[in-house]
Amino acid sequence: MGPCISKKNKPQDKTKELDEESEVKLDDSACQRLYSKKEPRSSLTIHPSDQSTHDTHQYFKRRDLSLLTQRYIFRGASITKHHQGFEEKGMKLDESQIDPTFLESIGIWVTCKKGLKTEDPNQDNFCIIIDGSDFLLGVFDGHGEHGHFISEFLSNCLLQTALSNPLWQSDPLSSIKESYLSSQSLLIEESNSEASNFECKFSGSTAVTVCVKQNHLYISHVGDSRAVLAKKQSQGYLAVPLTNDHKPNFPDEKKRIEETGGEVKQMWGEKYWRVFFPGKEFPGLAMSRSLGDLASHPAGVISEPEIKEIELEENDEFLVICSDGIWEFIKDQEAVDLVAKSGYPKQAAEKLAALSWMRWLLSGTNTADDMTIIIAYIPKLT
């Protein structure tokens, strides 16, 4: 996913020329010059010079991306082989010829690890779009036989659909909500085509997306992938949940399911609550909202996202966006504390994934879920 740079053999710092002023401005020509995929990877420098964790946070907060005009898209690669446990999913880039290390230079990183479900490929996916000074970040956690195809489909269309909506500039929240609903329609259309490699009747995906635009956060989600905001305090950082997991047993969700004609119950020996038809052991979905999962809709499952807008403040430092493979054994505050201590987003993401993996292995469940983590520092407010 990117080079590791040791202190013993540290290459020339190519970001130094951009770092002379207290405010660091990046434009497209600088990005192409510093992070072109045509350059030898060993010459790419993705970290500022050795600094304290506090200074590292300030380094990323100084990044001014207002001069960027091009759009850069990073997505999870298509699955071409069966991965081993904890193996990294590849990254697919657009045609911009920008190296993935560009992401870390602006305070963003993603890691996507295969779990221990031997019969399934890595069903997680992600999408990161840098659109001028705007960030669009998405995590998708597929489930069912074709969940990996559906999460990949969504990584290719959901955020891009929001960007192409005429309402994007004037009403981002509405355009994002519409992108979820239109992505559901596109999923159905694609699954019904003769050339489709998936069905979305018994397979689906979560989605959690956070857009950073003009000093605001636009948050939307379906399912149990989660986004958390870290706020700087006088002592440490405060984890602020941006999403609520869509669990079938939560009062509002359960009420809607039961009014639609579904039933929420636990199977014997399970800790998860699932959605069923009354008196049936079907369909058994462990979330109350998702994309795909058409067989669960008559029982009250919906694809409409929960959305909200938040105005950013100066002490809003970074975002932690993950699939439930991370949140199963790690609390919001613990994740924020770990990222704050790590400083660099790549290092933080890898440590968070390793901690989650260890806890899965020690849980006695003989399994581990796929894990996706996006760490993103909030850019300079304008």
UniProtKB/TrEMBL annotation:
InterPro entries the record matches: PP2C, PP2C_BS, PPM-type-like_dom_sf, PPM-type_phosphatase-like_dom
Superkingdom of source: Eukaryota
Keywords: Hydrolase, Membrane, Metal-binding, Protein phosphatase
Cleaved signal peptide residues: none
Amino acid composition bias (Polar residues), ranges on this chain: 42-51
Keyword Signal tagged: no
Region described as Disordered: spans on this chain: 1-56
Location(s), subcellular: Membrane
Gene Ontology annotations for the cellular component aspect, listed alphabetically: membrane
UniProt-recorded Gene Ontology molecular function terms: metal ion binding; protein serine/threonine phosphatase activity
Gene3D superfamilies from the UniProt entry: PPM-type phosphatase domain
Membrane disposition: Peripheral membrane protein
Pfam families: PP2C
Keyword Hydrolase found: yes
Biased composition, class Basic and acidic residues, residue ranges: 10-41
Main location: membrane
Residue ranges of domain PPM-type phosphatase in the record: 105-378
PANTHER family the UniProt entry points to: PROTEIN PHOSPHATASE
Family membership noted in the UniProt record: Belongs to the PP2C family.
Name of this protein: PPM-type phosphatase domain-containing protein
